[in-house]
Design goal:
Low-confidence stretches: 1-31, 288-293
Shape: elongated
Structural class: mainly beta
Number of strands: 29
Radius of gyration: 27 Å
Number of domains: 2
Length: about 400
Amino acid sequence: MKNLNPRPFKNWLLTSGRNTLILLLLGSCIEQFDPKVIAYQSVLVVDGYLSDKAEPYRITLSRSRALNNEEFLPELGASVSIIGSEGETYHLVEGDSGRYVSNPTEFVALTGQAYTLDIITGNGNHYQSDPVTVKVTPPIDSVYFRRERRIDDDGFEMDGIKILVDAHDATGGTRYYRYEWKETYEISLAYAAPWDYDSMAPDPRFPIKPIAVFAGNCYNSRRGNSILTVSTNQLSEDKVSEFEINYVSTADYKLRKRYSILVEQFALDEDAFHYWSELQKNSENLGTLFDPLPYELRGNVRNLDDPDEVIVGYFDAAQSSQMRLFVDGIQLRDLSFPSTGCPNSLDTVALQDIPLNLQRNYLISVLGPYPVEYVLMAPRRCADCRVYGSLEKPDFW
């Protein structure tokens, strides 16, 4: 980001360097600490791209945050359009949280055609991207997994699988690749609760009824938020081999029943690759005083009336190449799975104590013999999979 007052910053940096040297001499180790945050600019952040898929395109506009602020700051009330090479204009509709969405019945980007992103913010500032051409993306050759043990942040060994991708361009014309992914997994709990207490039951010897919603199998999805780029420019072949997309540990429920990941591949040009690579370095390294400080990383979006304004973001366009991988729990029998934290046996609860245990967030997993004098109950986190996901089964499952 632009430093509006370089001299105080320089003095601060020199002072910090002297103080750091003193600390090194006295302490023999480096301790992280939170320095005072330097004043920052409110910078427009543009996130979005076009593909050849007949689906809504999303452009997200937001404002940069201070390093000690995690709040998302959407840019609301903007007018966002896509302009074609012949001047045709497609308007995006404002949704929630600074997201502007296209209508796929009105606009689908065409391979080989050029498009420009046009933004007018609520305060009247006018921004445009450079024209970008929808690039051809080669198909993904394969997506697969391999077992790997790693050390977690606490220094303990964990088991899991790494997701790898292979791809190539026989023409040698791609050379720069970017990846996104979305994982989905099924959750099934050992003590799924099919029963509920019925205080109004006509038979007091059986004050039980089927639970209103049986949460036996649930599903959850998550998009990756890491920047994943790779270049084959230094290789003799335009070939991506064993590039790691994601690592999935056995620490939670993701791999216990069924796991799936959708990998999406996009071709980049050299300028886009440079932008994403530098953004990746900046995102990964920022965190301590001794890491490289943030700097102005300019993309291809600019203020038409003020070319010196800093805008973060790179508007791009490319075909989308996708491949989905499924991993069933039976394929991972050799992996080590830690305890889920659920008890090895259920709690035996007398009939009159059921309401109290329901208030304690326990559910009825097993019934005793008729007439019911007791039931077996488990904590909700071990008996209701909605704690971890949704009952809605994905269409592709």
